[in-house]
Amino acid sequence: MVRFVRTVLGDIAPEELGVCDAHDHLFLSSPKFPGQELNDTAAARAELAAFRAAGGAAVVQWTPYGMGRRAADLPELSRATGVTLLCATGLHQAAHYTPELLAGLRGRLAEVFVSELTEGIAATGVRAGLIKVAGGFHALDAHTRWTMTAAAEASRATGAPIAVHLEMGTGALDVLELLCGELDVPGDRVILGHLNRSPDPVVQREAAGSGCWLAFDGPSRAHHATDWRMPDAVRALAEAGFADRLLLGCDTVLAGARSVDGGPGMPYLLRRVRPRLVAELGAELVERILTEHPGRAFGIDGR
């Protein structure tokens, strides 16, 4: 089997990704964030250009179905900035959608995910490269079980990875029990996001033991209270033997968090986070986390 990463401009070899922000957003809108939407194409282009100037080469956009991901704009942004982009299918928590939208997906959610992964997102020609779903705060509700069951079915059908939003960093073990236990998804096909927001080293080590990927996706304005603990958590996981399970991202969710709007944004990952981690882990491991690991985590086995 030939392994590849599915980008908005087509499939590439995993090693072609380069320095990668493994969890971010160029576009995102939700009724939970009125007036703070990421919906400005010019700002998205400027943010990508700033990331590229800082040494970045690829960004994985986790914005899923129905949240303003602007898939049609991604190929041109990728070409214009030289930054490789991945687009997600999937579904977030119910609070981000209207009841009417969710009702229209009943009975066909896995089919929608598979279609966007293989045939393309409607009217765009862009094929998704990952499935994004979400847990709840210390719990898995009926919506979570529905979306994760559909994600597992789509992952089995396509080989695509499943990226999971952990609400405030919680519920990692419950998510793994469902996805990797009940639904039989291989651990290395699951990416847990936001672990830095609940800095519990015991949970992090147990999660890593499942073989899943651990995404530490800060800094941000909203989660600065825990972002500063991330280097210690990453070092502890590496020392515990889980250095090969780590990913890094920024998770820019609101307009004010972009660097071009006064926030830390994507470049901060390379300007400030990378040097801090080099001091903790050494340059060689940090380079692998930023380059080799994303290619492995988001790789799909050709069939």
Please give a structural write-up:
By secondary structure, this protein is of the alpha/beta class. The protein has one domain: Metal-dependent hydrolases (TIM Barrel, Alpha-Beta Barrel). Helix content is about 40%, strand content about 15%. Strands 6-7-8-9-10-11 form a six-stranded parallel sheet. Helix 4 runs parallel beside helix 5, helix 7 crosses helix 9 and helix 10 packs antiparallel against helix 11. It starts with a strand and ends with a strand.
**Which structural class do the helices and strands define?**
alpha/beta
Strand count, sense and barrel status of the largest sheet are: 6 strands, parallel
Output the number of helix runs. Answer: 12
CATH class, named Alpha Beta
Cα-based radius of gyration, to the nearest Å = 17 Å
The helicity comes to: 25-40%
Shape: globular
Find the CATH topology: TIM Barrel
Distance between the termini: 6 Å
Query: Domains counted in the coordinates: how many?
Result: 1
CATH architecture: Alpha-Beta Barrel
Number of strands: 12
Q: Mean pLDDT, nearest integer? A: 94
Strand content: 15-25%
Q: State the low-pLDDT regions, or none.
A: none
CATH superfamily: Metal-dependent hydrolases
